[in-house]
Amino acid sequence: MRRPPTAKQGPRFPPILIPIGAGLVVVVLVAVALILLSGGDDKAGPNPAPSTQSTPAAPKSSYQPPPNALAVGFGVSLVPVEGWSLVTAETKGKQVATYAPNGEPRAFYWVRQKQNVTAQAYLLGIVEGETAEEVAQLGNVRNLPCPKDVLVECVAIDYTSTTKDKSGADVKVKGTVEAYRRKDNVVTALDFRTRTDFAQKAEADAAAMKKSVIDSL
Q: Which of 37, 40, 48, 182 is the most buried (most CB within 10 A)?
């Protein structure tokens, strides 16, 4: 009896090539799936390259604050006037206040900072927060002459409002918020607020404290 002819065998692949080929197929299928999920939008531009622009360094200043200066941040400090004490509960910036003999606050001065925002935007956020629960009349934002070359945006706004003291009685208040943006995009805001019946004394003290902050910018 004749044995049937042996079937011809095709070229044999080494076993190691089988998982490699399967892996290539999986990669191709995943790539196709990603294109479909993204919608294949050919209008989208290439992904932006990572930014190499860094925040400008804080300017160097020859100003040396006195020993009683309160450090705010970014080289800025506040020198409180006699009769004004630090509000230790404040965690953002530095806030000082002056009090009547009965313990009621008569005025406060608050210095705080924020990065990478315009001076006007920061100022408006502060004054809106100050007067949110009061009957207030806001003035217009006005540009100030920048007192130092390192400053690029200087703005201010005044307001009046009516609030309540601890007894529930109405208290007339007036305030001013100023904001100064430096070339390194650090904005320093000066937030001053006083009872109108104490305004004359408070405004004189605030002017001295403002000078200490401006000197340190």
A: 182
Residue pair 188/176 in contact by the 8 Å Cβ criterion:
no
Q: Are 151 and 175 spatial neighbours (Cβ–Cβ below 8 Å)?
A: no
Report how far residue 188's alpha carbon sits from residue 186's, in angstroms, rounded to the nearest whole number. 7
The stretches in the chain having pLDDT less than 50 are: 1-10, 13, 17, 19-20, 22, 24-53
Structure confidence at residue 56 (pLDDT): 56
State how far the alpha carbon of 90 is from the alpha carbons of 84, 95, 121, 143, in Å: 14, 7, 22, 28
**Predicted TM-score of the model (pTM):** 0.72
Residue type, 157: I
pLDDT digits (tens, 9 = 90+) for 9-57: 445 545 554 544 545 444 444 343 333 333 333 333 333 333 444 555 5
